[in-house]
Amino acid sequence: MISTRLTTIDNGILSHEDLMNMIQGARPLIERRTANDKIFGKLEISIPIVTSSHPSSLEPRNLIAGFLLDTSGSMEGEKLKLAINTIKKIIEVLHAERNGKTIEHQPIHAWIYVITFNSVAELVIPYQEITAESMLLINERLDYIRATGCTNYQRAFIKQAEVIEDILMKINTPQQYHLIRFFETDGEITEGSTKVNLLYDMMRCTSTAAETAAAGAAAAAAAAAGGGAGGGPRITFEDYVIGYGKGVDLGCLKELASPYHPNPPPSTATTVVTPLCTSLVTILNTEDIGFKAGEILFKLIMRCGNNWEISVETSHGANVELFEYQTHQWGAETTIHSMIHGEKRPLWIQYTPPAPPAAGDLLLFLPSIQVTIKYENQFTSEKITYKFEHEIVSEKQEQEAAVATAAAAERVTTIVPMINGMAQIEIFKMFREIEADRYDKDTIVREAYKILRILKSINAVTSISYPAIACQTQNLITDVKVIIGLTTIQDEKEQKMVIHERRICSAEQEIFNSCATISRKYTNDEENYEEEAIRVINAAKAANPDQHGHGHGEEAYEYVSDALPSRIATAAAPTFHTSPDDYMDTPYIGGSSHRRASSDGSEIRALCVRIAVARNKKEDTTAEELYQQMQTQRFSGMYDSEEYIPVGGGDRDDTFSNTPMDDVYSQCRIGIMRQVSSS
Fold it and tell me: Cα–Cα distance between 92 and 69 in angstroms, integer?
């Protein structure tokens, strides 16, 4: 049975001076998250493991893998090869699960169809079951596919609707089928409709989908009532949009892959918008196939349910909110694409108690939090709802004596994961600000350096004795390294693809660290030289103001405290808040006037890296001399120079996380990735 656990903290944790002194820079972050009596918490959802107590095999799970493959001229070469190889690897793994492999006693029977599209759409591999015999013919036919023509999404979706309608007419057994539609493309539409709201509907359209779903629901209800399962098949749908290469139209594909309609009809009191099970995956190179296709397949095989909706509420004037990583806002609910058996998913929560009944009075009891979890089992069409209630325990100053008696280990395992959660929220917001291009890269780098110092001090406390916390911390450190590495990328499309990829990976707690190459642009300990770099830059600007009137603006860099705002500070910030946390998640106010040549790299970061490299090599070169070298290279591709941004400068291989991998699920996960990665 699914369970939840709520752990909360308030500003009482700041009294743990021993822990706060070890975790440098965390105090301002905690003060912000717990300002005005606010309580910060982690809501952990635990999914039960799959038992192997079944005496015989379960009924097979029926999957249909449908592929819409872009074969326009722009796909020619490596991208088409990657797309075809993705199809081959997916069907190979599905066939391996035919008699039950990853989950013992759980066979998976799979079917396939492949439609190619360019200026026209063609069914090149008709609907058929994936067997040892059919796989040979399928792979042979895939090898004959060539790229030519324009890119027409509209024709592709029309053809797919026709094929699915034909498939549903052929299935005449009252069984459950889960149809996964893979849309593989390298990007921009060159022919046909470009209206995303129209294409969104066409992508999910079959003329019989609504009738089939209704018939399936009726059949399931009849079966539950003891009337038997009659009628036709029960069908559930899931969509994956897979983009290949750096040139994809990320804006269009993200909208097509959104769980919500880009232009929904006006809501009414009776309208309930149910998120669709859909996701966007980007593949840039051969290595990505194993990681990403492997993750898709592992989650499909091990899935407990999809279309998860988690909502929270409370009463008596209190307020409770969940952090939604997709929108980076706090709200009453959030969604998760899917969850697997054996998974523990943390969600971040903030709770504002009601006002005291009278001035100076303390609330003895805080209103409880009600949690509602809804999801769908795609293998049975069953819709399931769980409800939980959690009491809030406040750790105010009056309770410090009791808290102080707790063991040090208990303080670490309770408090440190919460601080990591606060840091993760700030990281998500930094990704958002880079993607929106609202701040200069110096500001982004300095915010990243602050978080990095906090995480490194946490890692020093937890790396030996607390492996689970250390794993989470290492993954967050990789997040920050990716942010720092992003400041060196000049191609806007590539930058946004990296942000999308890493943000999803981080939020979904993936076992591998996506964007490891970007994270290795970080140079060991570069953040330690921030103050020195700022001092040198400011001195140079003061001495030669005329030489610094370009690129980064004339103003000097200010020394700032380690106080980390929930939102990256701007000059506009004081104009729209009246208390320390009023503007924590307020949408951006202002224009681009606060940006300083964001197309350039970070001047501060460039000097920090040069100083770090010189110190690591024990070179007798001053920071002033290094800055002068930078100035002479300003117009010669400084921000692309591998000389001062050494790839591989990081101190560890971040391809895989430091997650303990001795459990059976992690081993299965890695096994599927390796199988998909094999040639």
Answer: 18
For 561-592, write each residue's pLDDT tens digit.
Answer: 433 344 454 333 333 333 333 334 433 333 33
Domains of the chain: 61-304 (3.40.50.410), 409-519 (no CATH), 523-553+598-649 (no CATH)
Return all residues near 224 (Cβ < 8 A) that are at least 6 apart: none
| Tens-place pLDDT, residues 460-493 | 989 888 888 888 899 999 999 999 999 888 888 8
Residue-by-residue DSSP string for 186-211: -S---SS---HHHHHHHHT--TTHHH
Q: What is the pLDDT of residues 508-555, one digit of tens each?
A: 777 777 888 888 899 999 999 999 999 999 999 888 876 654 444 446
Helix, strand and coil percent figures for the chain, each rounded to 5: 45, 20, 40
Q: Residue 274 and residue 441: Cα distance in Å, rounded?
A: 38
Residue carrying structure tokens 């320390």: 580
DSSP assignment letter at 225: T
CA dihedral 651→656→660→663, nearest 10 degrees, is -160
- Structure tokens belonging to residue 140: 């042979």
| 3 state SS of 475 | helix
Contacts of 330 (CB under 8 A, 6+ apart): 321, 322, 323, 324, 350, 585
The residues pairing with 81 across neighbouring beta strands, listed in sequence order, are none
CA dihedral 644, 649, 655, 656 (to 10 degrees): -140
Query: What CA–CA distance (Å, rounded) separates 673 from 661?
Result: 14
The residue whose two tokens read 């269009």 is: 252
Whether residue 283 has pLDDT greater than 90: no
Q: What is the pTM of this model?
A: 0.84
